[in-house]
Amino acid sequence: MLGVDFPEGNYSRLAELARCIRGKMIISVNDIPQMREVFTGLNIQTVNINYSLAGKPTPRRELLICNF
């Protein structure tokens, strides 16, 4: 996703951390079915954004996930 080396298993670890920590946590990820599945049970909001590469905006959706 976006050319960043972040293995899928790390998202599962983030989700588990968000579920068990006492503090507040907000995560932003691409809106794809795998992310919705991994973060099930947490508060998920959808946000429309524009990615801009070479000055050409491309509409996309992000998930804002929080544990509060």
From TrEMBL:
InterPro entries on file: SAM-dependent_MTases_sf
Cited SUPFAM superfamilies: S-adenosyl-L-methionine-dependent methyltransferases (SSF53335)
Protein's name in the database: DNA adenine methylase
